[in-house]
Amino acid sequence: MVAETIPFKRSLKNMSNSNSTMQVAMYYNNRDVRLEEMPIPQIGHGEILVKVLASGICGSDVMEWYRIKRAPLVLGHEITGQIAEVGEGVSAPGGHVPLQVGQRVFVSHHVPCNTCRYCLNGNHTACETLHTTNYYPGGFAQYIRIPQIIVDRGVFLLPEEVSFEEGTFIEPLACVIRGQRLAGLKPGQTVLIIGSGISGILHIALAKAFGAGRIIATDISKYRLRMAEKFGADFAINGREDVSVRLRQVNENRLADLAIICTGALPAFLQALKSVDRGGTILFFAPTEPGVDLPIPINEFWRNGITLMPSYGAAPLDLTIAIELLRSRRINVKEMITHRLSLAETVRGFQLVAGAGESLKAIIEPFR
Question: What's this model's pTM, rounded to 2 decimal places?
């Protein structure tokens, strides 16, 4: 499949002379996301301007307790688009193809320094640079300015086999890849995925691609349970049941080798503590709300060699792997997209993602 390309009929400078503003979706809270105008960002030395053609809504975008403290702001960090302008002094990222106007790109919203003690020890997502870098103003905008440090190590050419909308999965898939890589998933192991929103669905698809033995998914939504089975789960369990009991019934009276928590609901965390086998691992892929403590049966876990592991974000290696998995169709995400919306419909997208209705992945198309 050859992906679509949007031709540039005039330079950005000419466009800016006639229209120096752009539309953005300004976030105030999950129920109040407004279509507003702001100036098209001006780029400086070593920077590029990207025309955003697709931007995915992430589950973290609707974590209101996390986002509202900085509101109003433009969210969005799962973007693909085309380079609209290249500043002076821009070099080829990683010594590869020079960046040029019109190229199709995925841009990582933050990047590590690659030189601090955390990066050198392989903990790139603990890097302070990664925590503080970003593009401006955010992915739910028609144009974004990419600072020099991200141009240097966070701009990836989008393969022709990957459409703009499919490319919005690069960042979330990379996070899933990092989580399973750190958890050490091995072929043939039983994986329990608690929460079958889009993160859970990607975990299912990746575990299947990596050769997991049995994949069991849970959720409280019948729709999401159906989607879990559609995308590779061998069994789907209603999260309101006793998950550990049902898990044994479908897994030869064994618990899971790897339990992955993909929802912030405390009951999900408690279920995971009861559902992991001896020598197994619990991967905390989602956070709870602030101030929530988890009672860990230390004695039992100590005796049984159970590992507790959090995973946040993605390292550059994970992004590269995600791009290749999408390009090669080892992970097929097209059917995971349930909604394609305009910037003016962003508030609807937030409500879909925050709710428990029939939605998996909502993508904003700023020029729709």
Answer: 0.93
